[in-house]
Amino acid sequence: MIARTPEPPYFVAIFTSARTPGDDGYGAMSARMVELAREQPGYLGMESVRTAGGHGITVSYWQSLEAIGAWKRNAEHLEAQREGRERWYGAYAVRIAKVERQHFFGDA
Amino acid sequence: MIARTPEPPYFVAIFTSARTPGDDGYGAMSARMVELAREQPGYLGMESVRTAGGHGITVSYWQSLEAIGAWKRNAEHLEAQREGRERWYGAYAVRIAKVERQHFFGDA
Predict the structure, then answer these.
(1) Which domains does chain B have, with CATH numbers?
(2) What is the complex's ipTM, to 2 decimals?
(3) Which of A2, A56, A101 has the CB atom closest to B16's CB atom?
């Protein structure tokens, strides 16, 4: 699950969230967004962890801020964001950052 | 579990890891490192998620690269890092990034 990102610099979107109870279509949407993100220009990789209790962190890596902006404005993704605020998430934070250094250990 | 970070810019250390099986002292070390990180100069907050299957992402926020460097070199933390490579982690990645934008939704 550890993404083999290229040498920095590159960019990251950190999405931290707390789910509402129940699935309510979340699983299907989530799988579709992973699939769709992988098809976007400038996509470099993704790491995602969610607990049974509904806390999640998804980190996606991108070549540029422009690539992150285009993904944010993707029509299908915009609809998922809208439904997310209505149904799936009680709270979330999105942070955009520039990766300056990285280090890998083991068979990552 | 969503950190109330201040307005950017600030810095983030993204730690993505795959645990080895069993606890083997990991839980106690992990709790101690959270406690210790909170005492460090420049610490702004932390978000951490780990699955039962052993995949984890911990994101810690800091005022400066210098604060992250000092935390990395903290003696007790260095020992935890050494033991981590020997016992607790099959693989991990550490990425250091500068947060440029953030957005919160809900009761985050």
Answers:
(1) 10-47+55-99 (3.30.70.100)
(2) 0.96
(3) A2
